[in-house]
Amino acid sequence: MIQATEAISISISPEQIIAAVKQMKQAQREAFIEDLLAAVSPAYLESIREAREDYQTGRVSSHAEVFE
């Protein structure tokens, strides 16, 4: 992951961003949201690391076990 060392100033309104995201296909939109969360949320990245570790060590439950 590349870390920015400088801020970039872009003149774009929230409405323009929303319109652009709405035009994306579902898979693109989901990837964009995931990338955005990863970029702004260290807690989100940590939760992914924890989930991967849980999966690798077998600390998982089936759908049926969770929703019994």
Task: Give a written overview of the molecule.
With 68 residues, this protein is mainly α. The chain contains four helices and no strands. It has a domain of 46 residues. Helix content is 65%, strand content 0%. The longest helix has 15 residues. The chain is flat, with a radius of gyration of 17 Å.
What gyration radius follows from the Cα positions, in whole Å?
17 Å
Percentage of residues assigned to helices = 55-70%
What is the oligomeric state here?
Answer: single chain
Kindly report the average pLDDT value. 89
- The helix tally amounts to 4
* DSSP strand content: under 5%
Q: Give the distance, in angstroms, between the N- and C-terminal Cα atoms.
A: 39 Å
In brief, what are we looking at here?
About 65% of the residues lie in helices and about 0% in strands. The protein has about 70 residues and is an all-alpha fold.
Sequence-ordered SSE layout with sheet pairings:
Elements: H1 14-23, H2 26-40, H3 42-56, H4 63-66
Descriptive tags:
single chain; 68 residues; mainly alpha; flat
